[in-house]
TrEMBL record:
<comment type="similarity">
    <text>Belongs to the actin-binding proteins ADF family.</text>
</comment>
<dbReference type="InterPro" id="IPR002108">
    <property type="entry name" value="ADF-H"/>
</dbReference>
<dbReference type="InterPro" id="IPR017904">
    <property type="entry name" value="ADF/Cofilin"/>
</dbReference>
<dbReference type="InterPro" id="IPR029006">
    <property type="entry name" value="ADF-H/Gelsolin-like_dom_sf"/>
</dbReference>
<protein>
    <recommendedName>
        <fullName>ADF-H domain-containing protein</fullName>
    </recommendedName>
</protein>
<dbReference type="GO" id="GO:0030042">
    <property type="term" value="P:actin filament depolymerization"/>
</dbReference>
<dbReference type="GO" id="GO:0003779">
    <property type="term" value="F:actin binding"/>
</dbReference>
<dbReference type="Pfam" id="PF00241">
    <property type="entry name" value="Cofilin_ADF"/>
</dbReference>
<dbReference type="GO" id="GO:0015629">
    <property type="term" value="C:actin cytoskeleton"/>
</dbReference>
<keyword id="KW-0009">Actin-binding</keyword>
<feature type="domain" description="ADF-H">
    <location>
        <begin position="1"/>
        <end position="138"/>
    </location>
</feature>
Amino acid sequence: SGVKILDEVLQAFNEVKTRHTSRYLLLGLMNSDREIGVLKKAPLTAPYEEFLADLKAYQDQGRGVYGVYDIEYELESKQKRNKLVFVSWGPDNLPIRQRMLIASSKNDLRRKLQGVHKEMQASELGEITEDCMIEVCRQGDLGSN
């Protein structure tokens, strides 16, 4: 797509991956849609509802975004797990150019984010509930239901 991924994206991602410094990152197009940068680093205390509200806010602005969510969940055996989930958010009501840029830049960005465990793509909030994300994360886990 020709969109450059800024170094700040990889720095923020590595902080979340190695030190769990944020609950989630929001990444998006900036500088006249020529670069992908960090839009938000959410504190560890941020609830899942805030993540959804942020996605909705960008949708209302006519922008798609990417998210990296550091989700904690429990297996049936009561073991706790953490996984990094990459989310591509491109609602159907976005301008066509925005949807095309989000779709065409996704693979390059995803490849650079080494250490993501799962990936989700959503165009409406119902596809990305916390339960949906946990279910995606549990797939392949030993001891899960």
